[in-house]
Amino acid sequence: MNSTNTNQPLAVVTGGASGIGLSCINRFAKEGYEVLIIDANKEAGESVLKNLKSEGYASNFANCDITKHEQVAGIFEALGNENKSAQVLVNCAGISPGLNALHQYPVEEWHRAIDINLHGTFYACREFLNLAVKNHASEGAIINVASIMGVRASAAQASYAASKHAVVGLTKSIAQDYAHMNIRANAVGPGVIDTPMNTELMKDENIMSFMLGRIPLKRVASADEVANLIYFLGSSEASYITGSYHPVDGGYLAS
Ligand SMILES: NC(=O)c1ccc[n+]([C@@H]2O[C@H](COP(=O)([O-])OP(=O)(O)OC[C@H]3O[C@@H](n4cnc5c(N)ncnc54)[C@H](O)[C@@H]3O)[C@@H](O)[C@H]2O)c1
C-alpha cells in the first residue's frame, strides 16, 4: 500500500476487487472520495487499482486476508501513521459456502464462512472505529453487507444465514455504541445479485426459475443497484439513518 495524500474523504471497501465491493469502489471514487480497496485477491485488486489510477482517481489497494486480524489492524495503523482518517467503511468481503444439511456440515467450511463473513467484518469495524476514536472523529459511516439471509433462512445454508444474521446484530450494536460520535452503522440485505459469486448459480435454469418466482420484480439486480443504496447510506443524505437493516431484493422479503 503506497501513501496518497489528498483532502478528499476516504472510503475503505473490503472485498472491493469484485462484485458489489467493486461497484462501491467505482461509485465512491466517482463521487469524489479517495478509495482504499481491501481484498485477498491480489491480481484482481491490482488490476482494479491500475484502472482507477489510469482514470485519475485517488486510490489504493491493500492485499489482505480479512480473517487475519493483524493484517487488518496493520492497514488502519498505517492510515493513522499517515495522519489520515477514514469517513466510510463498507464491508463486502464475503463468501457463499456450499449447501449442506447441518448434521453433515463440514466443520472447516462452517468456520471459514463465520471467519470471513463475521469475524472479518468485526475486525474491519473494530479497526475503523479504533482509528476514528484516536482521531476524535466527529462523523463516519459503516455499511455492512449482510444478505436477505441476514433476516431469513433457506435450506442448507446454515453457516451463511448464521454469519449474516450475526452481521446484522453486530451492526445494530455498533450503532448504539458510536452514535455519540455521529458514526452511523447500517446493514444492507442484497437479494440475488449478478456478481462473480453467482456465476455458477445463474447458469442453473431450475434454481433461477425457482428464485425468480419468489422475486416480485422478476429479475436479479446489478451490483451497481446495491452500490446505489450503500453510497446513499454512507453519504450525509442518510444523516439520520443508523442501526437499521435495508433490503435491496426486488421485493423478496415482502412477498
Ligand atoms: N451476490 C449476491 O447475490 C449477494 C447476495 C447477498 C449478499 N451478498 C454479499 O455481498 C458481499 C459481496 O459479494 P459479491 O457478490 O460481490 O461477491 P464477489 O465474490 O464478487 O466478491 C467478494 C470479494 O470478497 C473478497 N474476499 C473473499 N474472501 C476474502 C478474505 N478472506 N479477505 C479479503 N477479501 C476476501 C473476494 O476476493 C472478492 O473480491 C458478500 O458479503 C456476499 O455475502 C451477495
Automatic annotation (TrEMBL):
CDD domains: SDR_c. InterPro entries: NAD(P)-bd_dom_sf, Sc_DH/Rdtase_CS, SDR_fam. It comes from the Bacteria. The keyword Oxidoreductase applies. Gene3D superfamilies: NAD(P)-binding Rossmann-like Domain. Keywords: Oxidoreductase. GO terms for molecular function: oxidoreductase activity. PROSITE patterns: ADH_SHORT. It holds the Pfam family adh_short_C2. PANTHER family: DEHYDROGENASES, SHORT CHAIN (PTHR24321), ESTRADIOL 17-BETA-DEHYDROGENASE 8-RELATED (PTHR24321:SF8). Belongs to the short-chain dehydrogenases/reductases (SDR) family. This is Short-chain dehydrogenase. It comes from SAR86 cluster bacterium BACL1 MAG-120820-bin45. The lineage of its organism: Bacteria, Pseudomonadati, Pseudomonadota, Gammaproteobacteria, SAR86 cluster.
